[in-house]
Amino acid sequence: MKVLITGATGLVGQKLVALCRAQNISVNYLSTRREQMVGQDGYRGFYWNPESGEIDLDCFNGVTAIVNLAGASISKRWTPSYKKKILSSRINSLRTLHRALQTMDNGSIRSFVSASAIGIYPNSLSNFYEEDEAKVDKSFLGEVTRAWEQEIDTFKVFNCKVAKLRIGLVLSTDGGALPQMAGPINHYMGAAFGSGNQWQSWIHITDLARIFLFVVENRLEGIYNGVGPNPVTNSKLTKEIANVLNRPLLLPNIPQFIMRALLGEMSYLLFTSQRVSSKKIEEEGFVFDNQNIRRSLENLYMDEQPHDSSDQKYSKEFV
Fold it and tell me: If we measure between CA atoms, which residue out of 64, 155, 154 comes closest to residue 111?
């Protein structure tokens, strides 16, 4: 099997590539930076530019599955121009792939799997969301995810299985949300946000990469939630990070108006609540290696204590 991966150099992409290579699965990947492309046995880069629609068609040679992880981070301030980039980076990437497949014999492609986001689910402290939820969150992120998924659905015209993986809060010490949360805690400045009761549907980075490969290998189709089986509140997550880092929580919860003043509309990410089910992917036979938040955090920080989390990448890439 050979997999074409977009976004292969991102947080999730790097873990997925490592998993594929560990299982002797060949990987082609797309990059907008020619100077960073490598050509190794079983791992080869190809140029593309989704903004202009340019793509090297050789990237599809021998490929039987495509995993799409492309999209600008949602963690930068949501200025009008950056909002356009968040949306266009997702839509243009998919359209570039779609047009390319239309121009060639795509019969070898058996599976198309794309990232999506649990941000599509309405903000709620009480609901427990499964994949058949029809309502969409009335927020910028909700609208982006709906447009994103509509574009993914256009790949159904090809003779392949199309799957959407709605990703939750990805836990990794190499980037994403966790270092941003752990940094202030490590410096005795950590606190929960708002009431702290908002649900955070998290997933260990390794399990997320495993789900993507599981969906590809089993040629699953439809929508699956890329979250672990045990969501926690923001207050619980904050306390568990503090416990693992052996730091006290000295400050009161941070009010929403303060974060709004600091981050603008993007602060919505810190206070929105989505409690999301992993039941569907488990019923397909997937078994999570990391189900408990405390043990998952200990696993991630096991080789890093003592550790200054402020030195980690602060490029929150969960969607």
Answer: 64
Measured between alpha carbons, how far is residue 109 from residues 104, 106, 213 in Å? 11, 6, 15
Predicted confidence at residue 317, as pLDDT, reads: 34
Place of tokens 């002797």: 24
Cα 91 from Cα 108, distance rounded (Å): 24
| Amino acid letter, residue 187 | H
pLDDT digits (tens, 9 = 90+) for 131-162: 999 999 999 999 999 999 999 999 999 999 99
Q: Where are the alpha helices (DSSP H) in 187-229?
A: 205-217
Burial string for 33-70 (b: 16+ CB within 10 Å, else e) reads eeeeeeeeeeebbbebebeeeebbeebbeebbbbbbbb
Question: Residues 50-64: what's their mean pLDDT?
Answer: 96
pLDDT at residue 306 greater than cutoff 50: no
> 73-103, pLDDT tens digit by residue?
998 899 999 999 999 999 999 999 999 999 9
**Is residue 276 within 8 Å of 225, Cβ to Cβ?**
yes
What angle (nearest 5°) sits at the alpha carbon of residue 174, between those of residues 188 and 215? 130
65-77: average pLDDT: 94
Residue with tokens 């090809």: 158
Integer Rg of the chain from CA: 19
Vertex 7: Cα angle to 35 and 148 (nearest 5): 135
Q: At residue 265, what are phi and psi to the nearest 5 degrees? A: -60, -25
Predicted TM-score (pTM) above 0.90: yes
Instruction: Name residue, tokens 């047009």.
Output: 99
Q: In sequence order, which residues have a C-beta less than 8 Å from that of residue 143 and are 6 or more positions away?
A: 136
Through-space distance between the first and last CA atoms of the chain, rounded to whole angstroms: 28
**Over the chain, what is the mean pLDDT?**
93
